[in-house]
Amino acid sequence: MTPADLSLTVLHAVRRAVDEGVLRVDVPARVAVERSRTGGTGDYATSVALRLARPSGLEARDVAEILKERLSDSPGISSVDITGSGFLNFTLDGSSQELVHDRVIREIARSGISYGHSELLSGIHVRFAPVTEPRAVLLTETVIRLLRAQGATGDIDGTDGADDSGATDETTDADAAIASTTRATGETTDAAASTATATAPPRPERLPVLPAACLSDVLGVDAARWALLRPAAHDRALDGAALLVQHERNPLFRVRYAHARARRLVDNAAQLGFAPAYESAVDEPRLLALLGDHPAVLLSAARHRAPDRVARHLEAVADAFLAFQHTVLPLGDEKPSAAHRSRLALAEAAGTVLAGGLSLLGISAPDQI
Predict the structure, then answer these.
(1) Is 83 helix (H, G, I), strand (E, B) or coil?
(2) DSSP H or E segment with residue 174
(3) Could you say which residues of the chain have pLDDT below 50?
(4) pLDDT the model gives residue 173
(5) Residues near 195 by Cβ (< 8 Å), separated by ≥ 6?
(6) What is the H or E stretch that residue 88 is in?
(7) pLDDT tens string 33-74
(8) Which of 1.10.730.10, 3.40.50.2300, 1.10.3720.10, 3.10.690.10 would CATH assign to domain 245-360?
(9) CA triplet 304, 307, 310: central angle to 5 degrees?
C-alpha cells in the first residue's frame, strides 16, 4: 500500500461513515497522508479527524475513533492508533512495505528526475508581486518552478512571457534571476475563473524574505543559490564561503557528492558486468522512506512556497545514501547477486532523486566531483 493508496483508503472510510450516518460532514476531495513525525507511531499519519471535527460537531478524537473502526480491517494495514488530539497513525504490514518500496524504486526509474512531479495543483494560477531584491527574485523564481512541477501555473504581475517550466541551469546575477522568473508564466483553463479574475483580480502574492545579496559572481551559481534557498526565507542567508569547501561539514558538497557517488557506483557495476535491478528487498528503511516521501516534500514545498524544504530533504537523502553506499558493490571475490543488483537500483534511485531536487533549485548535479 503506497501513501496514495492509503489516502484513498482513509477517504473511503470517511465516505462510509457519512453514508452510515455516524458522521455528518461533506466528504473532502482528498485526504493528506504523511510520514509519521516525532511523537507519532507507525509508518504514516493523517490529521483528517481534526479537519472534520468542527463541521461534524464532534471532538477530533471521537471522529478518529469512528474512522479507526472502519480502517482497522483494511488490507495492507497492520494497525491503526490514535495519538495526540486526534491524529490517526497507520502501521503497514510487512508485505505492504515491501510493495511500497518496490513501486517507489520502479517509479523513480520510470520517471527519472521528474519523479515527484504531479498535476495535483492543476488549475491553480498564482500571481506574484514584482520584486527586485536579489533573494526575493531568486525565491520567487524557484517557487514558480516548484508550482509548475505540481501542475500549477504562475507569473510575475504585469509580465507576459513564454512558458518556461524547465529548471534554470545558470543564474549569474539578480537580473538573470528576474528574467528567468518573468519567463515562468501560464494560464488557467477555467473560463469562469478567468472571467472572475479579469473583473476582480486577486492581490499578487509577495513572498516574505529577509534580504541578502546574490553573490554568484563570487561564489558561483550553485553555492550562491544554496546560500539563499537552504535557510527558510525569513532566516539569514548561509555563509557562502563555507559552501565552497569540499568537506563533509558542507551540506551542499554532501548532496552533490552523494549524487556523483551514485553515478560512479552504476559505472563501476557496469565494469563488473551487472546493472541495477530491484529484485529483492533491501534493508535500508530510512533511505527507502526518504525516497518515498520525495513527492510529498515537493508538493509541500510548492504549497507553502518553501524551497528550503526541498534542500533539507536532499540533505537527508544524501546522508542516508552515504551511510549505505559501502554495501552496494561486491567485495573481494564475491560474485554479483540479486542483492547487489537491488542495492545498486536503490543507489541509482537515490542519485536520481538528488539530481531532480537540485534541478528544481536551479543547482547543477555533476556526475564527478
Answers:
(1) strand
(2) helix 174-183
(3) 161-198
(4) 40
(5) none
(6) strand 87-92
(7) 888 776 667 888 999 999 999 999 999 999 999 999 999 888
(8) 1.10.730.10
(9) 105
At residue 281, what are phi and psi to the nearest 5 degrees? -65, 140
| The three three-digit cell numbers of residue 333, written as one number | 571475490
Per-residue confidence (pLDDT) for residue 169, from 0 to 100: 38
- All CATH 1.10.730.10 domain ranges in the chain, comma separated: 245-360
Q: Return the residue matching grid coordinates 545579496.
A: 213
Q: What is the DSSP string of 190-232?
A: -HHHHHHHHHSPPPPB----------HHHH-HHHHHHHHHSS-
pTM: 0.73
What one-character DSSP code corresponds to residue 260?
H
Looking at the chain, how many residues does it have? 369
pLDDT of residue 170: 37
| Placement of cell 479537519 in the chain | 51
Q: Are 133 and 175 in contact (CB under 8 A)?
A: no
Q: What is the pLDDT of residue 4?
A: 78
- The arrangement of secondary structure in 3-92, i.e. its CATH architecture, is 2-Layer Sandwich (3.30)
pLDDT at 100: 79
**Which segments of the chain belong to CATH 3.30.1360.70?**
3-92
